[in-house]
Amino acid sequence: MAVSFNTTLHQPSLSPSCSIKLYSGLKPQSPSFLTNGYQNLNKEFYGRIHKSLQSGTGKASRSRVKMMPIGTPRVPYRNREEGTWQWVDIWNALYRERVIFIGQNIDEEFSNQILATMLYLDTLDDSRRIYMYLNGPGGDLTPSLAIYDTMKSLKSPVGTHCVGLAYNLAGFLLAAGEKGQRFAMPLSRIALQSPAGAARGQADDIQNEAKELSRIRDYLFNELAKNTGQPPEKIVRPPRIKEDAPRQDESAGLG
């Protein structure tokens, strides 16, 4: 027995008075957009999109916006002489404002960069102060002493600021700043320590290195005493991290 189902599909008819908007590409075909306000708005919208699609890359303008790269931030910097603005990396901008930031272990390569920057800034204008910000564990002995000797040889005054921690030779560089221009943030930590070595080999080699370390230790303590105005016997004491670093450093002559 055959059963037939007579079904009639009713498709909704779209009348001009319906609120549904039909688009052909980007041009609206709904009669509700025939008013002047909406017509001008869609013409302007269509013009912008059409211009973006017809650009050289064929991509929307939003995708062509240059975002800040991940890594070293770039900041706008105004050239004082030319009066023009340009995008430079943040370290370059700080160097141009005579700000040097030491935030890592001082090795030979990093020390050479700091030396070159200080010498260049001193040749540009030796009457303006150089600001050195310290936040690091110190570093190798010879590169750190090279920075210290350069600081003392510059005609430009050098102010030092501890913004986090200044351990070992970083604390020694902090004390090398100009008197009255040495600062430490309230939560900063400063610790001084005698130079250490790792001598290996013959007994004569170990003895010679021990003598050299003793000579360098005496030099560091004498320089600290001269820079802080404290007697050497007060400088020579067991190393420890100061709990109230800024206040103790001021009483120790680091201010």
Automatic annotation (TrEMBL):
CDD domains: S14_ClpP_2. GO terms for cellular component: endopeptidase Clp complex; plastid stroma. Residues 227-255 are annotated as: Disordered. It comes from the Eukaryota. GO terms for biological process: protein quality control for misfolded or incompletely synthesized proteins. One of its GO terms (molecular function) is serine-type endopeptidase activity. Residues 234-255 have a biased composition (Basic and acidic residues). InterPro entries: ClpP (IPR001907), ClpP/crotonase-like_dom_sf (IPR029045), ClpP/TepA (IPR023562). It holds the Pfam family CLP_protease. Belongs to the peptidase S14 family. This is ATP-dependent Clp protease proteolytic subunit. It comes from Thlaspi arvense (Field penny-cress). The lineage of its organism: Eukaryota, Viridiplantae, Streptophyta, Embryophyta, Tracheophyta.
